[in-house]
Amino acid sequence: MLNEMVDWKETLEGYAIMLDVLGLKREEIKIEMEENRVLRVSDEGKKEEEKKGGHWHKVKRSYGKFYRQFRLPQNVDLDSVKAKMENTVLTLTLGKLSPDKIKGARVVSNVGEDQQSDKLNNHGTK
């Protein structure tokens, strides 16, 4: 498994997650949005590097799965997630939703059994 470092920064406009992905190529990295606002960055982990030259031959292999998960805050605009890889750093940028567009916890009223029966009777359905 890779030894990755992560920085997570919040700005007025959004969030930036910087993840060191040493030894990975851009096309090997998979970025997914899972249920419950979880962002997952992963790689299958099968690597083979071959170097030839002169009278020597070298093959470097490593196996193992790499993944990192981040639970995103409620104010992240899930449609705004962007990824950019530069050198060995993957930067994910995530915009913020305006306060009126944040979907928070929904409050459900708890109606007692007597009140529920009366309500049904008043509407003619029981």
UniProtKB/TrEMBL annotation:
Residues 107-126 are annotated as: Disordered. It holds the Pfam family HSP20. It comes from the Eukaryota. The keyword Electron transport does not apply. One of its GO terms (biological process) is response to stress. Keywords: Stress response. Residues 1-108 form the CS domain. The keyword rRNA-binding does not apply. SUPFAM superfamilies: HSP20-like chaperones. InterPro entries: A-crystallin/Hsp20_dom, CS_dom, HSP20-like_chaperone, Small_HSP. Residues 1-114 form the SHSP domain. Residues 116-126 have a biased composition (Basic and acidic residues). Belongs to the small heat shock protein (HSP20) family. PANTHER family: HEAT-SHOCK PROTEIN 20 FAMILY MEMBER. This is SHSP domain-containing protein. It comes from Psophocarpus tetragonolobus (Winged bean). The lineage of its organism: Eukaryota, Viridiplantae, Streptophyta, Embryophyta, Tracheophyta.
